[in-house]
Structures are given as C-alpha cells and as structure tokens.
Specification:
The chain is of the alpha/beta class. It has 11 helices and 14 strands. A hairpin with a 2-residue loop joins strand 5 and strand 6. The structure holds phosphoenolpyruvate and manganese (II) ion.
Length: 343
C-alpha cells in the first residue's frame, strides 16, 4: 500500500499517519520529494482501514496496488499521463519529436543539428554532454562546457534541452542546465542515480536497460517516482538479442505493453535501436504506428566527422521525409502532429 500526501500536508500530519501505520504493526517508509511526500507501507496491510487513512489530514491518495511498481502503475491511475518539458507535452494526445546530435561536439555542430531538428519538426533538442561510452578511450563528452553550448543553442532556437546524466554526483549540475534529464540504458538500474534524478525536480527520460524486462524497467521508474517525481517518460531503445544485423533489437511490442501497465508516456529511440541510418525512418513509422508518444532521433550536419554514433545520424537529405512522417502519421492514430512548441 502507498499513501501519497498532499502538498499542504504538515509534519504533524505525516507523523500521525506513521503512528497509525506502526500501531497496526506495519512498517512505514517515508520518501520526501520535491513535489510530494510518499509513505510506502510494508507488512500486513490488511490490518489497516483504507477509508480512515484516506480521511486523515494531509492525505491525498491511498493506493492498494497488486503490481510491484505502485506509483507508475496504471492500476490506480487509469488515465495516461502527459509530461511537460519546457512547455512541450509528451503524452497520449501527441507524437513529440526530440532530435539533435548524439553528442555535443562544438557550438556550431550543435546549432546546425538543432536547426536540422527544427526542419524535421522537432520541438525538443537532444544532445549528450556527459557520454556513457563502452570504451574509456572514446570521446566522453564535453561535460559542463557541453551543457553551456546546449544552453546557448536553447537561447538561439527556443528548443528545450534533453541531456543525459551519468553520475549521481553530476545531477545538480546537469539539472541546472537541462529541461529534461536523460538516464541511459547503461544506467537504467543505477538506483542511486535514479533516486538522485527523482529528487532533482526536472522531468526525467528513462531509457530501458538493454537487458531489462519491462517489469524491471517500470521498477526503475518507480525509484524515480518514489522520490516524489512522477514526470517520467519511458523510452524503448532496443534490447540485446542474438541478432547482429542491427545494433539492438527494437522491442516494438514493449510500447503498448508498457502503456497498458503504466500511465507514463512511452517514446521510442529508432536511432540507438537500429544503429543504422537506413533503419531510422522505417522504425520511426513503426513506433508511431504502434502508438508511441514520441521519438528521439540522432541528426548530425557531418556524420562522417561525428565523435559518437555517426552511422545512425540522419543527414539533411533525410529531414524532408522525417518531417512528412511526423506530419502525416500521427493523425492516422488520432494524435496531433508534432506538438507545438510553447516558448
Ligand atoms: C543516447 O541517447 O545518447 C544514448 C547513449 O542512448 P542509450 O542509453 O539508449 O544507448
Ligand atoms: Mn549515441
């Protein structure tokens, strides 16, 4: 059972709840978040009277959820959620395009990539300043300098920024620049990082671990939610299989499955899943067709010079077709075309 406290709840309200719960022999775990405080109950909750808990001062909601993830579960939150990133919605009514370079390399490259993203209809800019690379000898990202470049490009274009954080110690720094914090596949079960981004007060994009089941993915999201942050977008980015023709295998069925199990928006990364430029548009069409709430796509003005993931980046010549897909496909699903940017 989970008790969600309202914003108006006082310390005394919380103490009374904990006392009632403990008197029934049940343990109470209090998580104080930026926006909400949550009390997780462990033990024989059958002893507790849900209606009287609900009536206690400061209580907003009491949830009895059968799934192991509670706050992100759709069981108690039948309506699908919309997450707003710098005013841009990601949710059931729209298909949001997030695009930009895999890594921030130079101010010019980032600005050019942002302009390419806008031509394709993107309303959010992606770009990594801290890169989680398989090899310690590969380009690791520009760090804070990269964040400053992203902030300058946001200023120039109006596009809010989505950028990855790889270390719990950097969360505050990255959150001071980013509009949305990305947690990558390699950190998808880094629980200390998940808790830190949950406490940062910024929307979070949580990629699926490349070897994570859908339940493990939702449990990872629960770590973020449990810190009081329910502004989470799930991102399917392919899982590791025996297949070598593609970088990862896009698990397209994960989109409707996750949407049925969780109220959180679900988007797809057709760039990192296929790992090949020629697959990005077909996989984008598939993602929108299956009901994804958005796509996140790599673009680069000169992919042959890219310091990271050049082979999967779309080039100028691909943008017209991507724009057309973003315009024509969402209405077929009863969604609006790429969400309008609110500046
Ligand atoms: C990325 O989006 O830049 C990235 C590293 O993705 P993933 O974590 O899915 O590999
Ligand atoms: Mn990449």
């Amino acid at each position: 059972m989970v008790i969600v406290m309202g914003q108006e709840a006082t310390g005394d309200d919380l103490a009374s709840i904990v006392a009632v719960v403990q008197a029934a022999g049940v343990e109470a775990f209090v998580s104080r978040g930026v926006r909400r405080t949550i009390v997780g109950l462990v033990g024989d909750v059958a002893q507790l009277d849900e209606a009287s808990l609900r009536g206690m001062p400061g209580v907003r909601d009491v949830m009895r959820v059968s799934t192991p993830y509670k706050l992100v579960s759709r069981e108690n939150h039948p309506e699908r959620s919309t997450v707003h990133v710098g005013g841009v919605p990601i949710g059931p009514g729209t298909v949001t395009l997030i695009a930009g370079p895999c890594a921030v390399e130079t101010p010019q490259q980032t600005l050019e990539a942002a302009r390419m993203a806008m031509v394709a209809g993107a309303t959010l800019l992606r770009g990594g300043a801290f890169k989680p690379r398989t090899s310690p000898y590969a380009f690791q990202g520009l760090g804070e300098q990269g964040l400053r470049i992203l902030a300058d490009v946001r200023e120039e274009t109006g596009l809010p920024i989505v950028t990855e954080v790889v270390d719990a110690q950097d969360v505050e720094l990255v959150a001071s620049y980013a509009d949305m914090l990305q947690v990558g596949t390699r950190n998808a079960q880094n629980f200390a990082l998940l808790q830190a981004v949950g406490a940062a007060g910024k929307p979070v994009m949580l990629k699926r671990g490349m070897n994570a089941t859908i339940e493990e993915w939702l449990m990872a999201a629960e770590y973020v939610a449990q810190r009081g942050n329910l502004d989470i977008v799930l991102c399917e980015r392919g899982v590791r299989t025996f297949e070598t023709a593609t970088r990862n295998t896009l698990d397209i069925s994960a989109v409707p499955v996750a949407q049925r199990l969780s109220h959180l928006p679900v988007i797809v990364d057709p760039s990192h899943s296929g790992g090949r430029r020629d697959l990005v548009l077909p996989l984008t069409r598939a993602a929108i067709g299956v009901g994804a709430d958005g796509v996140i796509i790599d673009v680069h003005p000169h992919p042959e010079q890219a310091l990271c993931d050049g082979p999967q980046a779309l080039v100028d010549g691909d943008l017209g077709e991507l724009a057309q897909v973003m315009r024509d496909f969402p209405p077929l699903l009863g969604k609006s075309a790429a969400a309008a940017m609110v500046v």
